[in-house]
Every structure is written in structure tokens, then in C-alpha cells.
Design brief:
- The complex is a heterodimer of chains A (318) and B (248).
- Chain A contains eleven helices and two strands, in the order ααααβααααβααα.
- Chain A is an all-alpha fold and 318 residues long.
- Chain A has a single domain, classed as Orthogonal Bundle (ABC transporter involved in vitamin B12 uptake, BtuC), CATH 1.10.3470.
- Chain A has a two-stranded antiparallel sheet.
- By secondary structure, chain B is α/β, with parallel strands linked by helices.
- Chain B has one domain: P-loop containing nucleotide triphosphate hydrolases (Rossmann fold), CATH 3.40.50.
- Chain B has ten helices and ten strands.
- A six-stranded mixed sheet of chain B has the order 6-7-8-3-9-10, sandwiched between helices.
- Classes of the chains: A mainly alpha (318), B alpha/beta (248).
- At the A-B interface, α6 and α7 of A face α2, α3 and α6 of B.
């Protein structure tokens, strides 16, 4: 491989990873923007989405009889499941604590994360063929390779651009455009921004802040649901612990871009995706160090630029 | 909507009334049996020192703070205990303390949010035009972020935004705070104009002289209790009021 081919390959892999991280990071950053809570359970909601996706594939009889039907069905069922789960978590755990000290809610979020992780482990132990017949609940499950390997640049090309990368982009990019349009142009989107900027004033406008917060959790959960289907198809492996790594990547991305800032979350996610690709595809033995790099980025950002890349605020006059 | 039966006394022209309202924050009681009313077409002012309970009184009317006892009625209907977002729909809008403009939304977006409870786009556009007629500077700055406006401009935006819900009574908390003196006069002149057009106003002000000159009636609040109530002119001439609030 020439240098350019290596760079191109890292870009393709990095951007595909980054787009998946971005969908999760958007959920983190939207929730933070509106209730100033880091929802540590967010990555685990995405993990449970992966298990639902695998269950659906299992119920369809596994394998690749009708891959597009299976993908369509997963995209139809998993996002509403994750949205409902995220909404329930807010309604029954975070909302009763809305006026409690921030730390109380944060610790509760970690608790919800533990509950989800254990649910994932239990789910993986169900006696289903796709879970290995319930043999080892905690082991990673292989997700059927529904899209197969198909290099769109030709079989002789050194650089690989497969239908999986195209699938990632085709599903995630329009969603991000839709979300940007919703938040910046619609009445409900403006209400969301208003609640984020001043909840009391938003109530005085006649906005029901509880419903707007609930809507934010629903949208964040749905995006995590899409991310879970895309990630499962892309990496073809899921495990009950994957919420931790995906959550870490997405959280770091959100902080890197400027927590609370939607374009920032996407930008941060692309950076993290590229950093992982470089570590795993170019640095010798870098794969072992890629978590260290992500944590390192998180620490550096928090120390030197806590507002993130795009997080500089408009100066507010008092 | 669940119509609460109304056992209390009613006077036909009383628009907003507080009867023996107690309220507080956690263990701290801020209001002790506040009773006051605003009649249709009136400007009523509530004057008092810092921390006397003026802001809490307005927050109770808007439902941001829920009274622990007592009743708040609007046009005869009990509204205490309703959430803030529901109270706006009755026709009560507030220009809150410190203006509380949405800093990263444009002037136009701030105004549109004021009309969140309304749905007819033509009527909303007409209300925006009305706000621009009242405060032409807002039209010039319509695409600017609210947080970049001067204090006086933000106050105008807060008033314009509150009017967007087509309220029957406007609650105003310290509209002169942090505003240049010339603009204060302009804002008070606008309040008078709006009142002549039929809007009732409950005005909380530190600048008691200015408030009493504008208002029809006034109440004096001290440590959470109403201690005086009279015609604004008589309060302005009262030696006790002059000594305590007019700096004479």
C-alpha cells in the first residue's frame, strides 16, 4: 500500500466509525444541553438495542435469506424500543430527581447503567440459537454478516470501500440532516433550545418543559437505536459490555465538540473515529492503546478547553 | 379542563386576585397571607425593599412558585396549583426579573416563542409587527442573538415577547433594572400606551416614585406582608412611603 492508499483507507474506516459514534454522541449532548445530565446509561441503551436487533435476526431464522428485509425490520423496531426505554429511564429515574443535587442524578445514571448491563447479560443467556443457545451469557455474540463482503472499488483494489461503509453513511447522514432541520427550524425544536437556555422562561412562554425533556430522551434514544443496528451490522459482533466502550467514545466526542452543541458532537465523533482508525490500522500494536488515546483526549480537553471545539458561548449580558 | 368550583367572593371587574397567599422556598417562608387584586384596565404596582417578596408574588401568579396555602383567581377561576405552562393560556404573561431572554436565539425566535400557545400564523405575524411598531429597534435587530442586545433592548424584547401570547394581564418584574434612564422613560411610556389599549398590569418596581406615578393603585409589601394599600397618588404623598421608599 502506498502512503496515499493507507491514508484513504484510514479515512474510510475512521469516518464510518465516526458516523456511528456521532449518532450516540448526539443523544448524550442533547440530553446534557437540556437537563445538564450526563446520561451514563445512554451507551447501554444502545447495547440493549443491539441485543434486540440480534433477537430479531434470530427470530427470522438467522442468516441471510432476505438481508434487506431483516435490516428494514430492525430499523423499524429497534429505534422505537430504545426511544421508549430512554424515555422510561427519564420518566421514572431522572424526572423525580429533577430538583435534587446534580451528583444524585449522576450517580443514579451510573446505577441505571449497571441495571442495563445486567439486563444485557441476562438477554445474552437466553436459549436462542443466535446467542449460542444460552451457553455463555457473558460471551460476545457474533452478529450475522447480512451485508457480506463486497469491495465497491473492485476486487483488485487495495483500498476497501465496502457496502457496509456505504450503508453507514446512507443511514446516518440523512438522520443528522433531519435532526439539524428539526432543532433549528421547527416549533418544537425551537422549544427544545429554549428549555435548554432558560427553563423558567420557557415555562413562562407556555412550554411544558417535562414534555420537551421527554421528547429529548425519545429522540436521543431513537438515534441510539439506529446506531445499534448500524453498529451491529458494521462490526458483526456484540457483547453486553459494548455500551461501555461506545458510551466512552460518544461521551468523549460530545465533550470534544463542546457538550450541548449538536454539530460539535458530530465533529468530535469524526475525530474520535479517525483517531481509533489510526491507532488500530496504522500504529503497530496501536489497537491495545486506542482506549488510552480516547481517555487521553478526554482528559486533555477537560483540562485545556472544557468548552470543547465549538462550545464557546455567546456572551450573556446580565 | 377540570373546572374547579369557586367558593370565594367575586367582584365582576376583578381580573386577578390573590387571597391570603402563603408561599416559600423549602423551609423559608417568603409570603405570609398576601391579599391583593388587579381590576380590569388597571395598572397596579407592588413596591417594597429587596427581598420583601415582590418577585415571589409574581412567580406565584405565573405558577412558577406554587402557593402553600391561599387562593389565586384569574377572571374568577382558581389557577393556583396549575403548572406555569397552563397558566399562560388563561391570559397571564410575565416579563420576568432579569428579563430572561433566550440568549442564543434570535430576536425573531424569542418573539415567536412568546406565541407558543397560539397557532394561527397570520395572527402571530400581526403580533410580531405590533411588537416591531412598539419597539422599532427590535425590527432592526431581528436576526441578532438575544444575548447580544443591550439591557434596554433586552427589556423591550422581554415585553414584546410577553405580549405575543395576547395576555389580558401583564406581570412586570423590575422593568427598569439595568436599563439606561432614557430608555426607562420610553419603556414606562409604552406601558401606559398598552394600558390605554386595555391591558391590565401588575408592576413590581424598585423605583417606587416612577412606578407610583404610572400606576392607578399601589400596594406596599414588607417581609412578605402587605402593609399598605391605596391610590397611587395618595401613596406618593404619604410621609411613611416617602421616607421608606422615595428617599425623602
Amino acid at each position: 500500500m502506498s502512503t496515499w492508499e493507507i491514508i484513504l483507507q484510514l479515512l474510510i474506516t475512521g469516518l464510518a466509525n465516526g458516523l456511528i459514534i456521532a449518532l450516540i454522541a448526539l443523544g448524550y449532548t442533547m440530553v446534557y444541553g437540556i437537563v445538564e445530565l450526563i446520561n451514563f446509561a445512554h451507551g447501554d441503551v444502545m447495547m440493549l438495542g443491539c441485543f434486540l436487533a440480534l433477537t430479531i435476526v434470530g427470530l427470522l431464522g438467522g442468516e441471510v435469506a432476505a438481508p434487506w428485509l431483516a435490516i428494514g425490520l430492525m430499523l423499524l423496531l429497534v429505534p422505537p424500543f430504545c426511544a421508549a426505554l430512554n424515555w422510561m429511564i427519564d420518566r421514572h429515574v431522572y424526572r423525580p430527581l429533577r430538583n435534587a443535587p446534580k451528583l444524585t442524578v449522576l450517580v443514579s445514571a451510573i446505577g441505571v447503567s449497571f441495571v442495563c448491563v445486567n439486563l444485557g447479560m441476562f438477554w445474552g443467556g437466553l436459549p436462542m440459537e443466535v446467542f449460542g443457545g444460552g451457553a455463555q451469557a457473558a460471551s460476545a455474540k457474533s452478529f450475522p454478516d447480512l451485508l457480506g463482503y463486497h469491495n465497491l472499488l473492485g476486487n483488485d483494489a487495495v483500498v476497501q470501500l465496502t457496502s457496509k461503509e456505504v450503508m453507514v453513511a446512507v443511514i446516518t447522514v440523512p438522520l443528522m440532516i433531519l435532526l439539524t432541520w428539526f432543532v433549528s427550524r421547527t416549533r418544537l425544536g425551537t422549544a427544545m433550545r429554549a428549555v435548554a437556555q432558560n427553563p423558567t422562561a420557557a415555562q413562562l412562554m407556555g412550554i411544558d418543559t417535562n414534555r420537551v425533556v421527554g421528547l429529548t430522551f425519545i429522540i436521543g434514544g431513537a438515534l441510539a437505536g439506529v446506531a445499534s443496528v448500524v453498529a451491529a451490522l458494521y462490526t458483526t459482533s456484540i457483547s453486553f459490555q459494548m455500551g461501555y466502550r461506545n458510551g466512552l467514545d460518544a461521551f468523549t466526542a460530545a465533550v470534544l465538540g463542546g457538550i450541548g452543541n449538536l454539530p460539535g458532537a458530530v465533529l468530535g465523533a469524526l475525530c474520535i473515529g479517525l483517531a481509533r482508525a489510526v491507532m488500530e490500522g496504522w500504529v503497530p500494536n496501536g489497537g491495545q492503546w486506542s482506549n488510552t488515546v480516547v481517555f487521553g483526549v478526554l482528559i486533555l480537553v477537560l483540562v485545556f478547553r472544557p468548552t470543547g471545539i465549538l462550545g464557546s458561548r455567546v456572551r450573556e449580558k446580565v | 379542563m377540570n373546572e374547579t368550583p369557586d367558593p370565594g367572593p367575586r367582584t365582576p371587574d376583578i381580573l386577578l386576585s390573590l387571597e391570603n397567599v402563603d408561599a416559600g422556598y423549602g423551609p423559608i417562608r417568603a409570603l405570609h397571607g398576601i391579599t391583593l387584586n388587579v381590576r380590569a384596565g388597571e395598572i397596579v404596582t407592588l413596591i417594597g425593599a429587596n427581598g420583601a417578596g415582590k418577585t415571589t408574588t409574581l412567580l406565584c401568579c405565573s405558577g412558577i412558585v406554587t402557593p402553600t396555602s391561599g387562593a389565586i383567581r384569574f377572571a374568577g377561576q382558581a389557577i393556583h396549583g396549575q403548572p406555569a405552562h397552563a397558566i399562560v393560556r388563561h391570559g397571564i404573561a410575565q416579563v420576568p426579573e432579569g428579563r430572561k431572554i433566550f440568549p442564543r436565539l434570535s430576536v425573531l425566535e424569542n418573539l415567536r416563542l412568546g406565541a407558543f400557545t397560539r397557532s394561527d400564523p397570520t395572527e402571530i405575524a400581526a403580533s410580531i409587527d405590533h411588537a416591531f411598531t412598539l419597539f422599532p429597534i427590535l425590527a432592526e435587530r431581528r436576526h441578532q442573538a438575544g444575548g447580544t442586545l443591550s439591557g434596554g433592548e433586552q427589556q423591550m424584547l422581554a415585553i414584546g415577547r410577553a405580549l405575543m401570547s395576547k395576555p389580558r394581564v401583564l406581570l412586570m418584574d423590575e422593568p427598569s433594572m439595568g436599563v439606561a434612564p432614557l430608555l426607562v422613560l420610553k419603556i414606562f411610556e409604552t406601558i401606559r400606551t398598552l394600558n390605554r389599549e386595555g391591558l391590565s398590569v401588575l408592576l413590581v418596581e424598585q423605583n417606587a416614585r416612577l412606578a407610583l406615578k404610572l400606576a392607578h393603585r399601589g400596594y406596599v409589601i414588607e417581609t412578605g406582608r402587605i402593609v399598605m394599600e391605596d391610590d397611587a397618588k395618595r401613596l406618593l404623598a404619604d410621609p411613611k412611603v416617602q421616607e421608606a421608599y422615595l428617599g425623602e
